[in-house]
Amino acid sequence: MKGYVYIVLLMIPMLLQAQQVKRNIRKGNKEFIEERYNEAELLYREALDKEAESRPAQYNLANTLYKQDQYEPATTKFETLLSEDVDHETLAKYYYNL
Question: 3-state class of 17 per DSSP?
Fold first, then answer.
């Protein structure tokens, strides 16, 4: 029984970190909709600091960079996303934004 308690206690920080990543992405999305791209970029970068493999954060960051006329970094981000294995619908979104 004690083993289960320890496992649960070890998992709590991971779950809290995942929640923070999602929270930063949601806040970034809100800032993006309100056309506050600098703030959105910071929030997406914070999410990526906590979870570098977050595809939604990477994708949203690329869109935000594009909206700020930072075409080179945006293109690089989109190309990086394209190089990874994803489904056809997601690939279509990436190509559309390129």
Answer: helix
